[in-house]
Amino acid sequence: MKTSTSLLFILSLALVAGALQPVGTAIANAIAFTDVPADAWYRSDVEAAVELGVITGYKDASGGFTGFFKPADPVTVGEALKIAVLSAGYDTSRYASPVGDYWTVPYLYVANDNHFSLYVSGNPPSTNAPATRAQVAALIADAFRVNQTIAADQTFYPDVDASTSYAPAIAALTRDGVVRGDGNMQGQTAAHFRPYDHISRAEMVTVAMRAKAKYGSVSSSRSSVSMSSISNSSRSSIASSMPSSSSSLTISNSSSLSVDQGNPASSASSSTAAILEQSITYSDSGFSPSMVSVPAGTKITFVNESSSQITLTADKNQSAAGFATSNQLFSGDTYSFTFTQTGTFGYHNAAKPSDTGTVIVK
Fold first, then answer.
1. 276-308 pLDDT, tens per residue?
2. Burial class of residue 149 in the structure, from the number of CB atoms within 10 Å of its CB (0-12 exposed, 13-18 middle, 19+ buried)
3. pTM for this one?
4. Is residue 362 classed exposed, middle or buried when 0-12, 13-18 and 19+ CB atoms within 10 A define those classes?
C-alpha cells in the first residue's frame, strides 16, 4: 500500500524513537522480517513494536519464527486488540484468569473490564474478522484512555460524521495528531478517512506506535480481578467474541451461578443448576462464531441461516460421542448437542469443507 493511500501519521520518527525504550532486544535480535524492506515507510514502527514485545510475526509449526510479517495483509480484530492492549502497557496477568485457551482471551478480558467501546454491547465483533479503520481507532483510543470529548461541530473528514461508528475516537486521534487519513502530506486535513475500509498490519502497528509516542502507557495500578467478580454478562460478551458477534449465551438462575474452573460441571449438580446454552449460526460466509469455549454440560444449537443445505460433520478423531454425525440441515433447520466431555472438538460443513469451527469444552 502506497503512503498516499494509507493512513498518514504526523508524529515524527524521532519522537517515536525517543518515547519508546527497547524492552525486548533479545526478541528483536531473533526476529528479522524478510518482507519488511529497509526503506519501507513503516519499518521503524515495526522494529519498535518488536522491541516492545508487541509483535513477533508468524511462526511455523515448531514455534520458530518464519521471518514473515505480511505487512499488507488486513489485520484482524483480535490482532488489533492484542496490539492495542500490549502497546498501551496493560499487564494481562492482573486481570481475570482466562476461561478458555484461545489466544485472544487475555486481551478480551482487558477490553471487557476497561469498557472498550467494541465490547460494551452484546454484539461484539468476531476476533477473526478483518478490522475496519473505525474499529482500530476505537481500540487505540480506548486502550490508551484518550479523551474522546469533541465539539459537535468539529469535523475532520467528509466521510465521517456523527452517525459514523466510533466517530469520537476517530476525531480524538485526529485532533491529537495520531492519525490523519488519506493523501495529504502538506499538513492540511486529509480528504477521507474511509472508516469502514480494512486496515493493513503495517498500518495497525504504525497507529499503535504513534499512539504510544503520544500517550505513553496506561497506569498499571489496578488490582487483580478474580473470576468470581466477572459478571455472567461479561463472560457472555467474551465468549461471543471468540471470534464472532452472533452467538448467544443463556444462563438460567444466573444470580445463583458459581463458577468453579476446577470442576465446570459442579454447579450443574446443585439444586439451582445453571442451564448453559450457546448458539452457533451458519451463513453463506461460514460458522459464526467459529470458535467457542464453554463449560462441560453446555447445550450448543447450530442454526443454518444460509441459503443452502449444509452437512454438519465432526472432524475425524475429534468428535464427542454422537456429535455431528453428518447431520444434514436445510436452510432454517437447527441441530443441538450437549457437550458433557471436556476437550477440543472440531467440525466442518462437509458440503464446503473450508467452513470449519471448533468447540472447546472445559
1. 778 888 988 888 888 887 788 888 889 888 888
2. exposed
3. 0.56
4. middle
